[in-house]
Amino acid sequence: MDDMLSPSYLPGDYNQLPELPGVYRYYSKDGILIYVGKAKNLRKRVGSYFNKNAGINQKTRRMVREIQKIEITIVNSEFDALLLENNLIKKAQPKYNVLLKDDKTYPYLLLTNEPFPRIYPTRRVIPSKGTYFGPFASVKAMNNVLDLILSLFTIRTCKLDLSEEKIRTSNYKVCLEYHLGNCKGPCEGLQDETSYLKDIDQARNILKGNLSFAKNFFKESMQTAAAALDFENAQLYKEKYDLLEKYQAKSLVINPNVDSLDVFSIVSEEKYAFVNYLRIKNGAITLSKTVEIKKKLDEADQELLLTAIIRLRDQFQSDAKEVLVNLDYEESPEGLQLILPKIGDKRKLVDLSLKNALYYKKEKALLAGEVKNKKNRVLLQLQKDLSLEDLPYHIECFDNSNIQGSNPVASMVCFKDGKPSKKDYRHYHIKSVVGPNDFASMEEVVYRRYKRILQEEKALPNLVVIDGGKGQLSSAVAALKSLDIYKKVPIIGIAKRLEEIYFPGDNYPIFIDKKSESLRLIQRIRDEAHRFAITFHRNLRSKGALGSQLTSIEGIGEHTAHKLLKHFKSLKNIQQASLADLSQQVGKDKATKIFSMYHPKKNSSH
């Protein structure tokens, strides 16, 4: 049997992730785990790191540049993701999870074992005090659970000793919580412990994730009250039932006193099997791993699963005696107890493991066929429409922008696999052309681009698109010919007016169906090149306008204006700057002239 491989994703494949809650893990080129995160929607959350730059700080950009591999684990809810994220971070201490590197303890909810038990948050686990539920990676998530319980049940929040003797002998008085209806006053003997413990039992079920018990209780109570024409209480029970309906955090983590155990599940197909492994320590998921096994001799699933169990337990040094599985074994190996649970929390864990195994089985099928075909469909159509020898995986598009003849610039955008590759975008200042000349400008930038590509021995694109008609296309062709790469790189022009596609040397354009996906891709690339050029041009004109205001001051040249704008970032900041700050940048004489310009009524010595 081949070595088992963990299914993973490249950073550019984030759009193949499921739109499900889960935990994602980023690895560097050395296979080191550098970041663990949680998500309500894995595809959207992971995609947010790669499809935008705005709003992402420098440190996050640095992390994104390091990411070489992504692994995920699907869970049932965002709440489960919080718990799994917490355990993975505490175990691996990834370098970019800086907020969790101080080894702080995480919060639990404690259900005390005193008379009239309480439920409250704590960071210290002392088993003799009661039952702990957690840990919670987020205080907010923990408070959501606690708020839900306190809104559903009348559970005391005071710290009084409510033993029978104390209630009888102490002069306890009900507090504000009683008058608000949040407590029934057991301190004064107004509620017996038996009825109080009914609420505690329901709260315990919610803490374990078993919402159905509490929902059934409120539903039956609502129906009983309605049958007795007690509509006020029926409405109260209905509101609590609705609140539970909306609450979606169904945690599989039971409590830290549960024995450690391993959970394995297998799904199989003709040539491959997929095995998921969940490791449970002190009631919490501390590891999730899905592996692929290539069949060699048509082995039975029981045999494959047992092989995976032995290998993975050895790899991760597991010593758990109890192993939950999704297959029935008549006989367990010596020293190992293989159990197929039918109901309860352990069955939920097996179902979650199976959910992850099934997802990877589905993912392999998609990657092998459907996704690949879908991804390449537009590029294959474009290859056919333009009669290209190679699939146009790598496309580059050029556009000029020289509005009113000022600041002539050009841009090049790059699409790979039908998607923008923004790290390969380039801006160009026109150097050799005087005045507005689109044709000469196009020749210059195309020449500069591919001369550099050749010098750096990088791959040429599969298609070059020129934003313009026959004139701009001819100029670009001239650049390719001078570099002796014409006909080695397919090149076309797209005319704006009728969206016509021109080939070099053809008098007449070719027409692609206006509804064609391939034409829409070319248009999208052209529009992106235009946007990129216009933005660059607008920024240059803005800087030029600001600079011209400064250079209108006698004795202030372009160099000084540029230096001030670079330091102060805007004209407004320059206007508001002190004389001392200006002097530090350009010297006292020039600073005095600028300061006097914007503060005519003030003495320059101020």
Automatic annotation (TrEMBL):
Primary location recorded for the protein, binned into one broad class: cytoplasm
Residue span, GIY-YIG domain: 19-98
SUPFAM superfamilies recorded: C-terminal UvrC-binding domain of UvrB, GIY-YIG endonuclease, RuvA domain 2-like
UniProt-listed SMART domains: GIYc
An example Gene Ontology biological process: nucleotide-excision repair
Record-annotated UvrC family homology region profile domain positions: 267-476
Pfam families to which the protein is assigned, alphabetical: GIY-YIG (PF01541), HHH_5 (PF14520), UvrC_RNaseH (PF22920), UvrC_RNaseH_dom (PF08459)
PROSITE patterns: GIY_YIG, UVRC
Entry's Gene Ontology molecular function annotations: DNA binding; excinuclease ABC activity
Record flagged with keyword GTP-binding: no
Functional note: The UvrABC repair system catalyzes the recognition and processing of DNA lesions. UvrC both incises the 5' and 3' sides of the lesion. The N-terminal half is responsible for the 3' incision and the C-terminal half is responsible for the 5' incision.
Protein's recorded name: UvrABC system protein C
Natural source organism: Cyclobacterium lianum
GN (gene name): uvrC
